[in-house]
Amino acid sequence: MPKFNIRQYQPNDYAEVCRIHDVSRKEELTIGGAEKYFIPLETAPYKDDFFSCKIYVAYDADSILGFVAVHLQELDYIYVDPIHQNKGIGYALATTALRYMSRPVSLDVFAENTKAKKLYKKLGFKCQEVRYQQWDLNDPKKYSDEKMILN
Questions:
Q1: Which of 59, 117, 144, 148 is such that its CA lies 20 to 30 A from the CA of 94?
Q2: Which CATH number fits domain 5-150: 2.40.50.100, 3.50.50.60, 3.40.630.30, 1.10.486.10?
Q3: Cα end-to-end span (Å), the chain
Q4: CA–CA dist 28, 120 (Å, integer)
């Protein structure tokens, strides 16, 4: 098990957080069948919202391994560099953030993302509802959105 620490985001983490977001977001969208909607964090319309979150990063001696970004009652983003997944980093990041969050806490996840949902269930989240929504009027496909809640 690799050794890592968790701390609050610092401005010099920016490039690594963007890199991890981009590689992990592509993976997440592919799982949900929505890879054509990928936008790098640097140019994403939600960039300002992302950086208004409280962000914690997991790091080792060499690099940032992953991050979690949250608002008061919403776990908004949790991404671990794919080469460091399945090492307890996502669980540690989420547990750290949840200590400071008001209940209930919600999150949204693709219904098809079984790996992420396994982590969320381990943390105590339960499915509240599953919705299928059309993201773009020119795209007839409906994409899943599972809302999970932790009381």
A1: 144
A2: 3.40.630.30
A3: 30
A4: 15
Residue 20, CA atoms < 13 Å, CB-side half-sphere: 25
Nearest to 63 by CA among 43, 75, 80: 80
Q: Which of 22, 21, 8, 3 is CA-nearest to residue 97? A: 8
Helix and strand counts by DSSP (H, E) for the chain: 4, 7
- In our burial notation (b when 16+ CB lie closer than 10 A, e otherwise), range 26-48 reads ebbbebbebeeeeeebeebeeee
Nearest to 41 by CA among 19, 13, 10, 56: 19
